[in-house]
Amino acid sequence: MLNKYPLWKTLMVLFIVAFGALYASPNLYGEDPAVQISGLRGIETNAATLDLVKSHLDEKKISYASIVMEGGQILARFRDTEQQLRARDLLDESIGDEYSVALNLTPATPAWLASVGGTPMKLGLDLSGGVSFLMEVNMKEAIIKAQESLVDDFRTGLRGEKIRYRSVKKVDDAIAVQFRNLEDLENAETFLEKQNQNLIFVSDEANLTLSAKMTEQRLKETREYALQQNITIIRNRVNELGVAEPLVQRQGQKHIVIELPGVQDTAKAKEILNATATIEFRLVDTDGDLGAALNGRVPGSSQLLKERNGQPVLLKKRVMLTGDHIVDAGSSFDEYSRPQVNITLDSAGGSKMSNGTKNSIGKPMATVFIEYKPTDRVDSEGNTVFEKVEEVISVATIQARLGKTFRITGAGSQAEAHNLALLLRAGALIAPIQIVEERTVGPTLGAENVQLGFQAIMMGFGLVFLFMLIYYRAFGVVANLALGANLVLIIGVMSMIPGATLTLPGMAGIVLTVGMAVDANVLIFERIREEIREGKSIQQSIHQGYDAAFSTIIDANITTLIAALILFAVGTGPIKGFAVTLSIGIITSMFTAVIGTRTIVNAVWGGKRLDKLSI
Asked: What pTM, to 2 d.p., does this model score?
């Protein structure tokens, strides 16, 4: 029988539409204004903090919907923005020194819907609000770090070749190597030139000194490497923050643009993004005189540092291992319930650690935490001067030869261990960065954009709805039902995909999809009219109309889908947002405009003797 679907096919179409409607429904519940409280610099939020927040709010008679602990943070929900703003100001004044108090919007999705994975669409920076940073990479520090790395490479290489030297140190913008005799100088020059062809070597036989400088090409490559690596590491850190659809891209020769939609906790974001933390493992100098070192007589091969409790420690300058070899890090508790960081090294790092500890069993090894902090000073080029801060976070005796996996202790709290693991896992920044511009888009402006975008979608939907109703009558109603289902499916799919984010250009993609979905129905309906005019029966006309128009619809939509995928692949930011909604809209519109409308037409008119058709 013509134009009759089997029951299973009709039920399948209904199930897909109902499934999409279920996961689109969380967007109907909106969001509650909230205040998010999280600890700063390793301070944890706990039950005592929760009680403190409640007491402050109750004392000032600020009403709240709920206050709960979620993911190590306190989330206070309010019924209106007036109470939210009052609470933020009060808490910022009373506990803001130790805790970050930030405005937030929290989904008001019912518990039963959230239990099946129902969540509202993630909104971009222009719709949900958030924060945007323009960060500058300190290229001078990048060059200095590269030169310090060369110093270590020179020492390792010369020792490996058994070439004796007095000292290797950085002098201004060059690395100077002092030798004992002319033979060692010549052997070293031959070896180092062969190993470092992008350096310029100058020997001074009178002073038995060999100097090495970076070529302009090497300097350029170092700057480019610092910028690209910092972008990669910042992306890793943003992923750790759990931000949906962040934008991290370069701007010019030394700037990075970062957009974090939905983030209102700017203090936490800046703490993670701006940190230049890394660690080094060094042996404690047990042969040195700590008392003499405290009086200023520090051996040339050692360095005096302090532990967190202020206790001085004399360490060897030679670094056994740096954080560059860390491939994974996670926080946990040791057998005494103390916070610890579990570290996994790459193969090269595992070899270095194994070689460094095989002859040091029974000796103390220190874990040094290193941070570059901006100062108030600027250099001759106007760049902020960064201060290198080194702190010993733990000293432990090496009990056995270490390998690719081991653990370190000494973090003050579990939150601090978690943050340290996050930074080590994401990687240490190649060069310090500083925020030169910060822009925050508030939730109010985002809500206005959502409202205007929603009005544009509804206006486009309404005009198309009216046109189809007038021009195609009963079949126009079918097309409009399919159009509504298409809109529901787009929202449902966008809500289900973890990485999908709706932006203002994305809303434009939805409006465009509304028009494209109707195009398919126009082709089908016009073909049905044409078949009827040629004298074919109603059922044959419907059958031929859908079959003949199908190939044209597929061709038109596939070419548009290819263009959308290319936009997504090569575009950034707003262009990707447009491409995402357009791609999803094309796929859902082909389903609703062809299969969806055919299901309705078959159910209403299929298999019946008809003399006329309301089309």
From this structure: 0.61
